[in-house]
């Protein structure tokens, strides 16, 4: 009897000293030395609880309950241990049994009642953290969430269906999530079959991509599938003639209701007659890339376009057909041309009788390899709401086109002007800037030795002394600004890009930034110009936010710290690694 008590007392001593491993050894010795009381098992349970041996502690607590079923200690400790194992029902039951046995001891009753509250709180926290709240959403809301995720990338539907069984069942039973089918060289037959079943014949977007021509029989899975709901259609490198024969349900009525069409890398050397000869087509977005286009047929049948882009060559096409196509679509909002080769018929009437092409809704116009457009199409365009103009790559002078912007009034609505790799004169660009008070973005890239003259003009801030004097007149205690017209070109200009213009100099850059610093900002330059300060005060101007001067070797590196202190984004890369390596 004395053997287990000695070991027990030593174990208690080590427990109080925080030496739990030594205490555990001594409690084991006490239990193995005889038939100890329940307090020894309870003490060993306490040590195992401290050491994180929860299951061993539970076994000792059960032994305590077996030896002393009328005492509360074993139940109380079991409740705490079950709570740590997230078994809250067992924990609550044990705590209630302990409360029933504690008797009239207010302090201990309060402790056990507090334990019951802890168990209830931990249970709620665990449920909120582990419960599937998404599963309690109405099906309609869950479908809307899934649709939003899939909208940007239709392939996400596969990953979503693999999250859990609930999600998978919901996704497989929602045809709208399978409304976009993209077929390429990767498992086209298997994919076509799966989408046919899961979409339940409600395809909205069908895309035939490069590589499918080697497995064109995959389209046979869609042969009997109705395509009445189709609204978007893309053909990328796939023979359209074979597509027409393998998809008999892709009828003229289906194509008539399609709103989005992309034809890319067509293998046919001639325009596809059946595609552009459908009367009253409702297509709103049309993109033709590296493919032939029947301009004449399209002008008769496509009249509702809002977005159009063409990239390719012009063969057996007349200027009159192109002009007719543009006139047939006055609702165009974005227009992009990329002419890689021009071989078309231009009659004397086309040159002498230039009827205006009015595009009153056009806001974005982009042209690559612009010579044909600038010479024959641009002078006919009426662009009253043009906001973004991008012109890139060409050999003919741009002066006539830029002057047309001024004469037609299109420059007045411009907010972005981007000219890249073009033949320009500084005077023609400055002329446009004088007529573009709303311009916010200006890019002159690879334009030779004309950019610095434009920069100098933008940097000028001359104000007559009489105007300054009038500005400083005080009436009724308030300063009256009497300058009616800003002498700063493009006062809203924020983003400038003069990349690869070797004539750009440091002085005009400093003056440009200094002129457009808000009046409230502190100018670190000690010789601040009084005229500049007066102009800032009287004329609201935007501060330069982005300045890109990559490939401008004449810019002094010493001014970059000052520029970066005044402009949020400054990029000045003198040369690429490739050129630097060549020079070394």
From TrEMBL:
Keywords: Repeat, TPR repeat. One of its GO terms (molecular function) is Hsp90 protein binding. The keyword Repeat applies. Gene3D superfamilies: 1.20.1280.50, Ribonuclease Inhibitor (3.80.10.10), Tetratricopeptide repeat domain (1.25.40.10). Residues 131-181 form the F-box domain. SUPFAM superfamilies: F-box domain, RNI-like, TPR-like. This is F-box domain-containing protein. The lineage of its organism: Eukaryota, Fungi, Dikarya, Basidiomycota, Agaricomycotina.
